[in-house]
Write a structure and sequence with these properties.
The protein is mainly β. The protein contains no helices and 42 strands.
């Protein structure tokens, strides 16, 4: 892997959908860099500090959320002189998003009073009263023709279907939830999954015309659903729960065909490879050298020399660090808080928040755990390569961690003092964006060979 130099950032950073640009928030300035040369191609000045940025799907426009103001500003890369400012006045703005046609912006006011669709073509706007959530509760189908928007009125939750051409309500139906948490279209647009708040375990599958196809409830009298995700192929629906279990439903009968439990101790028989991150000090005598402190790499320890890390394959049984959440505090750190599918839908990775240093990788073909990665620090983020079966994760250290079906290995970031707290792929899987607290860099990732021979200490 090759790394760029570090660049300053004070907020969100993201690739454009066409992978040509990377947008970076730097206080009130929006910096657009070319992903090949990393030269600045556009620089826009906003009216306040940027809290949120989002690209339009055609990569021509980009919006900035100035939530402290609160207002939205949008910019055009092809017409730098063009500007757009959206201000809801006393109603405020809590969130903004693009429509799939890249010519409309949807904003949600404070206290969920209304959702407004703003047109960039004719300055017209459409209002939807009483949206359920600010940043959640809105989903577009795959071809971008319809939007499903959750609303709440008369103490009941509804799903409204809007046409993304006329923005007229095509239909509306009530859903059987106490307090709807979110919804998501299936990849084939044949159904919509809706799930309840953690206080009630309830997952509902609806057809777009409002028919309830299936109601799933794994248990009662306990905290319920925490994460939900469709597989890219659309055949599986994964549900992560507070009871530390991952359940997978099939799209034909909507029955559970797999249940995976995150055990605190793994014993034989188990065919999974368990990789544990360990330190590997490299004893280098640097006493004769006189170096500036700023020159020292981020992985240098004065008492032990250079610190390298690698994975070691553990022998069974293996016990994982377990954190029991306090019973008297809200939002307990337990249950499946991270859940992500691989591109080919064969693997799914999960993190049980009670064991934040362990990442579980499950094989959907064999219906068993394929590998477990045990880190020294809690896992911050884990993302699949959008083009192949390759998983990268970070823990807030200076290292990247990678897993493929052939093995796992660690990569050291050569930038001094750079701790990787978040990471994002571009759409073609050729570049990776790495974020530190106040800086970011990018790394080019080589494509995987047909038969990978990675080892745990590469």
């Amino acid at each position: 892997m090759e790394f760029t130099e570090a660049y300053k950032q004070t907020g969100p950073c993201c690739f454009s959908p066409n992978s040509r640009y990377v947008a970076v928030a730097n206080d009130y300035r929006l910096v657009i860099r070319d992903t090949f040369s990393f030269q600045v191609v556009q620089l826009f000045s906003c009216l306040d500090k940027i809290s949120y940025i989002e690209w339009a799907l055609d990569s021509e426009y980009i919006l900035c959320g100035l939530y402290k103001k609160p207002m939205i500003q949008a910019w055009s890369l092809t017409q730098p002189e063009w500007t757009c400012k959206i201000d809801e006045g006393p109603a405020g703005i809590s969130y903004a998003r693009w429509s799939p046609d890249s010519r409309h912006i949807l904003t949600t006011s404070e206290f969920q009073l209304r959702l407004t669709v703003w047109s960039l073509l004719n300055t017209a706007c459409v209002h939807v009263q009483w949206p359920k959530h600010g940043s959640k509760g809105v989903a577009f189908n795959q071809d971008g023709k319809f939007a499903a928007i959750c609303t709440r009125r008369d103490c009941k939750d509804y799903v409204n279907l809007l046409s993304c051409q006329s923005w007229e309500i095509m239909g509306s139906f009530a859903v059987d939830t106490l307090d709807l948490a979110d919804l998501e279209w299936s990849p084939d647009d044949s159904s919509i999954v809706v799930w309840d708040s953690p206080l009630e375990y309830k997952v509902l599958i609806y057809s777009p015309d409002g028919r309830c196809l299936f109601k799933y409830q794994a248990y009662e009298c306990g905290l319920g659903v925490k994460t939900v995700s469709w597989s890219p192929c659309g055949q599986f629906l994964a549900i992560g729960s507070y009871d530390q279990m991952l359940r997978v439903l099939n799209h034909l009968t909507w029955k559970t065909f797999a249940e995976f439990l995150h055990l605190s101790t793994v014993r034989a028989p188990c065919s999974a490879a368990i990789f544990k991150e360990i330190d590997e000090p490299l004893q280098l005598d640097m006493s004769e050298l006189s170096l500036d402190e700023n020159f020292m790499p981020s992985n240098y320890d004065a008492s032990e020399g250079y610190i390298s890390v690698r994975y070691e394959v553990m022998e069974l049984p293996v016990a994982f660090p377990f954190q029991k959440p306090p019973a008297d505090k809200p939002n307990p750190k337990q249950g499946v808080g991270l859940l992500a599918w691989s591109k080919d839908s064969q693997y799914i990775c999960t993190r049980n928040d009670s064991m934040p240093t362990a990442l579980w990788i499950w094989d959907m073909r064999r219906l068993e755990v394929a590998a477990i990665l045990v880190q020294k620090e809690p896992i911050r983020a884990a993302v699949w390569d959008p083009t192949c079966t390759r998983l990268l994760l970070c823990t807030g250290s200076s290292h990247l961690y990678m897993w493929t079906p052939s093995g796992a290995f660690c990569v050291c970031n050569p930038l001094p003092g750079f701790s990787i707290s978040d990471l994002k792929w571009n759409i073609d899987g050729s570049c990776l964006l790495l974020k530190d607290k106040d800086a970011f860099c990018c790394a080019t990732v080589p494509s995987l060979p047909e038969s990978s021979d990675y080892s745990s200490d590469d």
